[in-house]
Amino acid sequence: MPSFYVRGVTVGLVAGFISGLFGVGGGVIVVPGLVLWLGLDQRRASGTSMATIVVSASAAALLFSADRAVDWSAAWWLFIGAGVGAVIGARAITRVPEIWLTRAFAVVMVLAAVRLLLP
């Protein structure tokens, strides 16, 4: 079995690639990878995922921006909403039992998959 560090780098590489390709990665790849492959609990995985988003999003945004593929007007408004929403979510996560976080995350993932499969 690969070491914790090798598994961590692998999850990061996969998440970074998927993030750059599809614009997702943190919650979709990193959280399940941290929980299922690295053994973190749901709260720690969520917090760790948020920390990794800073690097992966910045790296990809620089390249997308160089290609003029970023709508900065829309991005600024999203920054405001995302910042406020992240603070509210980070405060709320401490009040929700671990099992419900895991179940809610699974439901969100299933709903997203179903939505993506529908025309």
Protein described:
- The protein has 119 residues and is mainly α.
- It has one domain.
- Helices cover 82% and strands 0% of the residues.
- α1 crosses α3 and α2 runs antiparallel to α3 (42-66).
What's the tally of helices? 5
Work out the count of structural domains: 1
Helix content: over 70%
Largest sheet: none
Shape: globular
- Sheet/helix structural class: mainly alpha
* Number of separate strands: 0
For the terminal residues, how far apart are their CA atoms? 40 Å
- Give the SSE order as H and E letters: HHHHH
Radius of gyration: 15 Å
Q: Tell me which oligomeric state these chains represent.
A: single chain
How much β-strand is present in the residues?
Answer: under 5%
The average pLDDT score comes to 90
Low-confidence stretches: none
Task: Record the SSE blueprint.
Elements lengths: L3 H19 L3 H12 L4 H25 L5 H21 L5 H20 L2
Helix pairs in contact: 1-2, 1-3, 2-3
What descriptive keywords fit this protein?
5 helices; single chain; globular; mainly alpha; 119 residues
